[in-house]
């Protein structure tokens, strides 16, 4: 048995076919926000509109996470937790409860458990200090699922949830099919989402969504990331900015996100990003932009600052923020 340290985890070799890897990171954030949208540690595409602008400063470590990977031949098991599970208070302890993020088993080409929806292209997420980033324009949800991968193709049946309707009567899983083309210049994925949604009166409504996303290398180490989604994507895109069902109808939304990351040198980089979502029934028009700077002080320790704005245009509300972050990879 031997132990080795990498930039992202510590691995214990049990024998030639078995290993256990421990990873994660510790992240401390300080955030100052000024505006008239109520929020806490990060913005998830929605929030109460305050009668007037307010300012607030907070520090928190909830994004910190730990994970474990077990490998035995063709079997991989992975579990990860962070600390956005609620609990505690800021009067005495600042304690936070663990929250399950991922828990899945993978055998050869089949994955079973909770992880990122197959509808996502995780390489197309912007690098941000804000935990959520421009989620209003990103596909971002973790689902329990059964996924089959065959080369560039992935197919999955995933846990249904009629957000805004009567989820207690959901009787069919969501279906996702995705094709990803990868090359030296990066990757582009096209994904389709097929759903049976349940309205508040128990009626069934069909939902179909489309996603195009990717990450393209430009000059040097720089890259451009993009996402575009349309149709009945509901809770799969924008977090809670758009519902699946509004009354007796399936909501339609259009969303996009663009981000450019530039490396100033071998250790420092910046990203500028923008995300937006609009809907047809609730007339949502919400956006989030930001620009940041990160520097690796050591191979595992980084620090950064980000300034940005999130807006709910349909309610004439917005907030500006400045966030400082320090992150140590375990």
Automatic annotation (TrEMBL):
Record protein name field: Porin
Entries under Pfam families matching the protein: DcaP
SUPFAM superfamilies the record matches: Porins
């Amino acid at each position: 048995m031997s132990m080795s340290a990498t930039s992202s985890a510590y691995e214990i070799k049990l024998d030639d076919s078995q290993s256990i890897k421990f990873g994660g990171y510790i992240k401390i954030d300080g955030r100052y926000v000024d505006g008239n949208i109520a929020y806490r540690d990060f913005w998830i595409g929605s929030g109460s509109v305050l009668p007037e602008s307010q300012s607030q400063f907070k520090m928190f470590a909830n994004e910190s996470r730990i994970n474990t990977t077990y490998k035995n031949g063709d079997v991989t098991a992975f579990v990860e937790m962070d600390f956005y599970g609620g609990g505690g208070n800021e009067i005495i302890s600042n304690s936070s409860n663990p929250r399950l993020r991922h828990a899945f088993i993978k055998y050869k080409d089949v994955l079973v458990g909770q992880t990122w929806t197959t509808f996502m292209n995780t390489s197309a997420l912007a690098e941000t200090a804000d935990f959520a980033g421009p989620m209003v324009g990103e596909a971002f949800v973790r689902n329990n699922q059964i996924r089959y991968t065959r080369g560039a193709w992935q197919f999955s049946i995933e846990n249904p949830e009629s957000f805004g309707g009567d989820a207690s009567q959901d009787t069919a899983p969501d279906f996702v099919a995705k094709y990803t083309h990868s090359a030296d210049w990066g990757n582009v994925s096209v994904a389709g989402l097929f759903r049976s949604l349940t309205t508040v009166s128990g009626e069934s409504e069909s939902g179909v969504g489309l996603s195009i996303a990717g990450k393209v290398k430009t000059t040097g180490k720089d890259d451009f990331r993009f996402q575009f989604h349309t149709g009945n994507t509901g809770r799969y895109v924008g977090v809670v900015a758009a519902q699946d069902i509004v009354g007796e109808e399936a909501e339609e939304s259009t969303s996009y996100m663009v981000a450019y990351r530039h490396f100033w040198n071998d250790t420092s980089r910046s990203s500028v990003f923008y995300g937006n979502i609009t809907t047809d029934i609730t007339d949502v028009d919400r956006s989030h932009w930001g620009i940041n700077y990160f520097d690796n002080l050591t191979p595992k320790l980084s620090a950064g600052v980000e300034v940005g704005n999130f807006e709910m245009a349909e309610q004439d509300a917005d907030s500006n923020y400045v966030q400082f972050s320090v992150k140590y990879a375990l």
